[in-house]
Design goal:
It is a single chain. This protein is an alpha+beta fold. The protein is built from 23 helices and 11 strands. It has a domain of 164 residues: Butyryl-CoA Dehydrogenase, subunit A, domain 2 (Beta Barrel). Helix 3 crosses helix 5, helix 6 packs antiparallel against helix 8 and helix 16 packs antiparallel against helix 17. The structure holds ligand LSKO443Y and flavin-adenine dinucleotide.
């Protein structure tokens, strides 16, 4: 905010009962992370090349070119200022425009790191790090996305030339969707069925050069282009999601990523001791980052809706006094505050997931693979529930802002359009929950065998207790006890998984049973993932959290998150007998009282996200709350208002009006 400018939300900020600066540190993860983030946000906000306000007005071609300009400028600044990897990734975050660089850094580089041998990493990574090559992740095809084993592209080994022949045998085998592929990438990690000596060996990744490094023209045998406009006007259309066909394209043998499986010069296929599933490792990495992204997108929407709800007034004027701020309506609070709590919940679960991922990666380097299934289940499940909740929440925030939320300059329509494909990319959310369900059913089926469940399924080891325990909640206050809450969530989750396992056992063919019970399995998986989020929020509170009143606020938010989920899924809790209807009603009583505790802190709690006005790009979410004059000014900047009489008047409006006059005279 400019020095000396009026702060229309000052009153809201004065009622805060905690130290906002300390909360900023907790949200960012550390003082260092906050400092880096803050510096990079300001760097981006102060650079005119990164302006965003004109984005929705640009044509696709202009938008795309502008995105290229921003990406090139960001890279120039990163090099000039010698930014660290952490700083560079914050710059990309604050530039806030889907671009080929997301896939280059987020998937192409990790794919080579995770699936390439040491030699391959040494050859390709330095080129990628300097952006002397630009890569994408070309897995999905026109005919298959979820079913990775169903991909049709082939990679046939030719022992005569020591090459692989990459080929698209059918229309449906065309690569379709990869970001950065359509117009920018020079290289791809392309996934194809490996065929050696007529035998198939599953799907593997191959580094394929697509375009000339001299003139950017596609290489012989490569047909490549953009797949067309996507949902929304600006939104994800800054990305060149592409189509790609291979016509017997030859690549050297050493361009197959060979950490998991090697093909020798003689055409021998050697399986290393690394599990086959590591081929899916890049997806595990990205799913983990997507959970962190969910907390960012959600907190951004909530920040806009909260500030605006404090500015907006409707009804309730007494004796000519001001009307009621809409944030004071209990309905507004019951729709908004759970989303605020969810933003914090997703933030902390993403922190935990990152540490789980780092731990599993270190173990994989040491040849320990036992934790891979859990890492897969956690990343898949949390990616699924956090993105679904966030997409719904952004739309809810738009509605919370009434009519003005529908204006592009509220920032919410664009945020929704950019965000909503997160429910589909990196694995359709239902397909991913079914993976979690498989993991849970497997865990349940092994309970009798003496195998002790660990990690996020450790609670299943107490199945005997959880299957019959009764919640001892007697008052609304009891619901503030994390142990009580966790036990109710554990009982619900375990009982849902056990019920699924019992029902599955009734089918002679387990796969048929899995297909028939898929809807129940998805619900059991979601229940397990919600338990993880709740538990990790409570565990966060066991840590030392400095700053006046910060822990107290987080305790309130953790209870709001848990009781909101309980209220929303009350049917599960009741049908599994985890709680009684009376206890469900007490949870709701507690929730109402918690909303009143959040109310004086609401604006400060969203200030703690430390978002610049540039990043928020929302008139409604401005830090200073100066909404109405800005909305008014912005309206006049619309190109339609360039002339008082619109273009088209002479051709289309005037004749109409004249005709009416003639008709009236008749
Ligand atoms: C410096 C950095 C700076 C900035 C960048 C940072 C961040 C930005 C990052 C990224 C950018 C973010 C967003 C960009 C936006 C979009 C990009 C989008 C990209 C994509 O969408 S890529 C394509 C993604 N595709 C999918 O996700 C496909 C989904 N399908 C699957 O994953 C699998 O096929 C499926 C459905 C899980 C399994 O199918 P199936 O049943 O056929 O199983 P399999 O026979 O294949 O395997 C069974 C066996 O394997 C286990 N398993 C499955 N998946 C995994 C895994 N990933 N890891 C470990 N194990 C796995 C499964 O549980 C079975 O085990 P079991 O036999 O039961 O023991
Ligand atoms: C914006 C965007 C960016 C993308 N970027 C990339 C990229 O960079 N690289 C890349 O390779 N791919 C990319 N993709 C592709 C993406 O990964 C796939 O679209 C995604 O994995 C879903 O697969 P699908 O399209 O085949 O959906 P489908 O599997 O066809 O899903 C259609 C419907 O069928 C249901 N369904 C499917 N299988 C099952 C099942 N077994 N049981 C129950 N229901 C089922 C789904 O729930 C869904 O409702 C991108 C997609 C989008 C939208």
């Amino acid at each position: 905010m400019e020095v000396g400018a009026p702060d229309y939300l000052a009153g809201e900020r004065q009622t805060a009962e905690f130290d906002v600066e300390s909360m900023k540190v907790t949200w960012a993860g550390s003082r260092h992370a906050l400092e880096v983030s803050d510096r990079m946000a300001r760097l981006v906000a102060s650079d005119p090349v990164f302006r965003k306000d004109n984005r929705v007005m640009l044509s696709r071609k202009e938008l795309f070119k502008n995105t290229l300009r921003k990406a090139a400028h960001a890279w120039k600044r990163i090099v000039e200022l010698r930014l660290t990897e952490e700083e560079a990734s914050r710059v990309r975050f604050f530039v806030d425009e889907p671009a080929f660089t997301d896939l280059h850094w987020g998937m192409f580089v990790p794919a080579i790191k995770g699936q390439g041998t040491e030699e391959q990493q040494q050859k390709w990574l330095p080129l990628a790090y300097k952006m002397q090559i630009i890569g994408c992740y070309a897995q999905t095809e026109l005919g298959h996305g979820s079913n990775v084993q169903g991909l049709e592209t082939t990679a046939t080994f030719d022992p005569k030339t020591d090459e692989f022949i990459i080929h698209s045998p059918t229309l449906t085998s065309s690569k379709w969707w990869p970001g950065g592929l359509g117009k920018v990438s020079t290289h791809a990690v392309a996934y194809a069925r490996l065929i050696v000596d007529g035998q198939e060996h599953g799907v593997h990744g191959f580094i394929v050069q697509l375009r000339s490094l001299d003139d950017h023209m596609p290489l012989p045998g490569i047909t490549v282009g953009d797949i067309g406009m996507k949902f929304g006007s600006g939104a994800y259309n800054s990305m060149d999601n592409g189509v790609l066909r291979f016509d017997n394209v030859r690549i050297p043998r050493d361009q197959m990523l060979m950490r998991v499986l090697q093909v020798t010069r003689e055409g021998k296929v050697i399986q290393s001791d690394v599990p086959r599933q590591l081929i899916y490792g890049t997806m595990v990495f990205v799913r983990q980052t997507i959970v962190a992204d969910a907390s960012c997108a959600l907190s951004r929407a909530v920040c806009i809706a909260t500030r605006y709800s404090a500015v907006r007034r409707q009804f309730g004027s007494q004796n000519g006094g001001p009307e009621t701020q809409v944030i004071d309506y209990k309905t507004q609070q019951s729709r908004l505050f759970p989303l605020l709590a969810s933003a914090y919940a997703f933030r902390f679960v993403s922190e935990w997931l990152k540490s789980l991922y780092t731990d599993v990666t270190e173990k994989l380097q040491r040849g320990e693979f036992s934790t891979l299934p859990e890492a897969h289940a956690c990343t898949a499940g949390l990616k699924s529930i956090t993105t679904s909740a966030t997409a719904d929440a952004i739309e809810e925030c738009r509605k919370l802002c009434g009519g003005h939320g529908y204006l592009a300059n509220s920032g919410l329509p664009e945020l929704f359009a950019v965000y909503v494909p997160a429910c589909t990319y990196e694995g359709d959310n239902t397909v991913l929950l079914l993976q979690v369900a498989r993991f849970l059913v497997k865990t349940v089926s092994q309970l009798g065998s003496g195998k002790v469940p660990v990690g996020t399924t450790a609670y299943m080891g107490r199945a005997r207790h959880l299957i019959q325990c009764k919640s001892n909640v007697q008052s609304a206050e009891d619901w503030l006890n994390p142990q009580v809450v966790v036990e109710a969530f554990e009982a619900r989750s375990l009982r849902m998984s056990v019920a699924c396992a019992e029902n599955l056992a009734k089918f002679p063919n387990p796969e048929e049973g899995f297909a028939q019970l898929a809807a129940d399995l998805v619900e059991a998986a979601a229940a397990h993932c919600q338990l993880i989020v709740v538990t990790k929020f409570f565990e966060k509170l066991q840590q030392d959290i400095p700053g006046k009143g910060v822990k107290k606020q987080l305790q309130i938010l953790s209870s709001v998150y848990a009781l909101y989920i309980l209220h929303k899924h009350l049917g599960d809790f009741l049908s599994t007998g985890s709680i009684t209807p009376k206890q469900g009603a007490l949870a709701n009583d507690q929730l109402r009282s918690l909303y009143s505790k959040i109310r004086p802190n609401a604006v400060a709690l969203v200030d703690a996200f430390n978002y610049t006005d540039h990043y928020l790009s929302s008139v409604l979410g401005r830090y200073d709350g100066n909404v109405y004059p800005t909305l008014y000014e912005e309206a006049w900047k619309d190109p339609l208002n360039d002339s008082v009489v619109p273009d088209g008047y002479q051709e289309y409006i005037r004749p109409l009006l004249k005709q009416q006059i003639r008709n009236a005279r008749l």
